[in-house]
From TrEMBL:
The lineage of its organism: Bacteria, Bacillati, Bacillota, Bacilli, Bacillales. It comes from Ornithinibacillus hominis. Its EC number is 4.1.1.11. The gene is panD. Gene3D superfamilies: 2.40.40.20. HAMAP family: PanD. This is Aspartate 1-decarboxylase.
Amino acid sequence: MNVTMLKGKLHRAKVTEANLNYVGSITIDEHLMEAAGILEYELVQVVDINNGSRFETYVIKGERGSGMVCLNGAAARLVQVGDNVIIMSYAQLSLEETANHKPKVVLLSEDNQIMELTDSITHGGQARS
């Protein structure tokens, strides 16, 4: 049996652009992708903290060090520039693999710079505002 587990997470990324006329996807700073273990063209779930929308799309690399988080195509209608989003990738693991699995969790600042890298998520932590 396989289970779907959180593989990587960019927490509280700020949307820097929304481009309705692009073919589709989400463009993410390559440095942030690497920190979270997210691959180019990988399926991700995006959750908008400001309006509650949840959707899936695929990732394309943005300029390294730019802090870019740009929603493209139809997804651009679901966010506003300045919204905070959580971007999550998942992996299918066997039950045996789950015993040692730890996700890559990246906590971001207001300008999409890495504040903390961790492999654990605890309930009850205070969210930054």
